[in-house]
Amino acid sequence: MPVIKAQRGSDGETSSRAPESRLQEAVGLAGAIGLEVVASEIVAVNEPRPATLIGTGKIQEIDELLDNSDIGLVIVDHPLSPVQQRNLEKAWVAKVIDRTGLILEIFGERASTKEGRLQVELAHLNYQRGRLVRSWTHLERQRGGGGFMGGPGETQIEADRRMLRERITKLERELEQVVRTRQLHRSKRKKVPHPIVALVGYTNAGKSTLFNRITGAGVLAEDMLFATLDPTLRRMKLPHGRTVILSDTVGFISDLPTHLVAAFRATLEEVLEADLILHVRDMSDPARDAQSDDVLRILGDLGIDEKAQNEKIIEVWNKLDLLDTEEHDALMARAAANASVMGVSAVTGEGVDALVDQIAARLAGILTETTITLSPAQLHILPWIYEHALVDERRDLEDGSVSLDIRVPGPEAQRLESMLAG
């Protein structure tokens, strides 16, 4: 395992990525959950078979490989219909999962927060709707573990489907509550003068390593696909003292199933709320351009159109330390000629200080909305506020203090923070 077929994307269109690159990625996905890859192969399919996807000759060839090896799992790096999956399992007498199933397994292992676990389980159950083969009786434990499987005369498949529907409904309700809580936290953050900077990128592009380099946080950062699943937020100070919130999000990947994108939409909404987006790219990967296209396509699906992408995104060309001197220097020269591109190495720290300076410069013109209260001893600051900020509402309180709803540019926000603290 695995046997990889990766000539076409999940939408049926020919992939822009070389089959060898997709094979390497699929092997990396298997390794991300500790699977030992015994054999891997690119299987060319001219006309997909409705019953098995691949031809009978190749099925027989793989069957002989399985008979001669201690292999219990075959991964097909292509979407499989329930019928195709079932027929391949019968032909090979082995467990078969497709690309979607593999990604779900990785997400299930990586999820650490309540929201992440709910999202993974919901996506997994929706994926299994048409694949019930006595595989969901473990849901009894969700019902108290009493072994109750349904009323008199109810078949096993009907009982499984009923439990599946009930569990999906319950998860959707729980996730709605978690989403409301996240929105509440987000609305509270909006009352604090801290812009949000979100890191996005193809999985394993080095987002978490860059996140750690900038913030000093101890986020898991390994050379592994989907090393980070749940979003991580940290406050950081920019060179001129302004505080921002940096958000590290789940890595994107090509052919990400639609229902999986939908399940994680609440998590990815951190990106929608961001004032600035850092698109981290692995410039040492031969498939870097195709990966970039995949990321921008998913951002578009989330509602960040091309205009917003041009306005909000800084491309971060990462892993320059893995390039030879000639390519490194050529990319740095190209980055220097484009204000929306920064060349860095998150591992060595090269270019990171310049990136932070660029973040500060891009955020300087963004107005921050906040509410402040001036004590009677601080009222001498009022004239400065009216000169440097937009005052939307003023409330004179009984104790002589003044409450203001204001919008203030970045540099002035930092100076105001210092004046209030003094």
UniProtKB/TrEMBL annotation:
Gene3D superfamilies: 6.10.250.2860, GTPase HflX, N-terminal domain, P-loop containing nucleotide triphosphate hydrolases. The keyword GTP-binding applies. It comes from the Bacteria. Residues 154-188 form a coiled coil. Residues 1-21 are annotated as: Disordered. It is found in: Cytoplasm. InterPro entries: G_HFLX_dom, GTP-bd, GTP-bd_M, GTPase_HflX, GTPase_HflX_N, GTPase_HflX_N_sf, HflX_C, P-loop_NTPase. Signal peptide: none annotated. Keywords: Coiled coil, Cytoplasm, GTP-binding, Magnesium, Metal-binding, Nucleotide-binding. Residues 195-367 form the Hflx-type G domain. NCBIfam families: GTP_HflX. GTPase that associates with the 50S ribosomal subunit and may have a role during protein synthesis or ribosome biogenesis. Monomer. Associates with the 50S ribosomal subunit. Belongs to the TRAFAC class OBG-HflX-like GTPase superfamily. HflX GTPase family. This is GTPase HflX. It comes from Martelella mangrovi.
